[in-house]
Known about the structure:
The chain is of the alpha/beta class. The chain has helices at residues 16-23, 26-50, 67-78, 93-101, 128-144, 166-189, 196-224, 232-257, 260-273, 288-293, 298-311, 318-342, and strands at 58-63, 85-89, 107-110, 117-122, 148-153. Strand 3 and strand 4 form a beta hairpin.
Amino acid sequence: MTQRTESTDPRPSHGFLAEVKDAVTTRAALLVLGVLVLQLAFITSYIGAFHHPKPSEIPIAVTAPAAAAAEQSVKQLAALPGKPLDPHAVEDEATALAQIKDRDVDGALIVDPAGTTDRLLVASGGGASLSQALEEIVGRAEKARGRTLRVTDVAPADQGDSRGLSSFYLVVGWCVGGYLCAAILAISAGARPANAARAFIRLGALLAYAIAAGLLGAVIAGPVLGALPAGTLGLWGLGTLVVFAVGAITLAFQGLAGVVGIGLAILLIVVFGNPSAGGAYPYPLLPPFWRAIGPALPPGAGTYAARSLAYFKGNDAAAPMLVLSAWAVAGSAVTVACAAFRRGRPGAAVGSGLPDDAPSDAR
């Protein structure tokens, strides 16, 4: 005699498709699809920016004892196929050197009509790949004219700064900290703050984190590793601004789009910002799209400013600092405005399994 046993599963089985729907919700499937799009955008952006660096209109000063000789060299360099250089004549070597130090040009050709050897001034602190490109392009042009070239690096990258990339990696690290800090606030307390007061608290917490992250990054890059010769105070200020700007952007995206805002921040900073930052390949070597957007995004502005502080005495750092400040102000304003508009309707914490508009504890 057999006894009938009852199933311990309180839910009746409706087949495999029903199990799939229970395991992967429509919202989760859409988020996964968004991750796939983000991944493909990452691959496209990085390969598109780096797979074929091509010099385009690199600014270079040209000078010679006689103005006519300088102008002739300018015409010859400007006529090179593909327009790799953007040459212009200057009064003398001192003026050319000053323009390099001010970051108005990336190199200078000093022509000696009385001999057969000219000099090229470069600044590898602004990017080793850029100075090497200048050497190659001008060297070929000089050889075609039956002349030789002697290269002088007037702003060399520090011994501990391999190929001038330390500034880029430092800024990338600061950017990662900025959007991760903002994302953690969403994970722990809701993607959208409950009110304007809570938004200000989040921004205050972000600022405290930015100050600490900026200081520690500057100390590691400078005194600890000896990678950058810039003063700690200058890098500290830059780092604080980079971290806060990126974090404020992430908070703003979260205020506008909830959890999806984290993905939007990654799209802007990582997918578009990092390959266009001028790190491995400075702007004149990047394709037009990345060259155009790079200076307007935090990674590019931060990298350019860090190199200016490290190797050019802070010259031409004002513009990228203004770019970072604009992102910080705009991100903060949008964050507060979104919180005030929602009036006590906080978004669900990331990972809670609830929709963004579902009730959750106001934090």
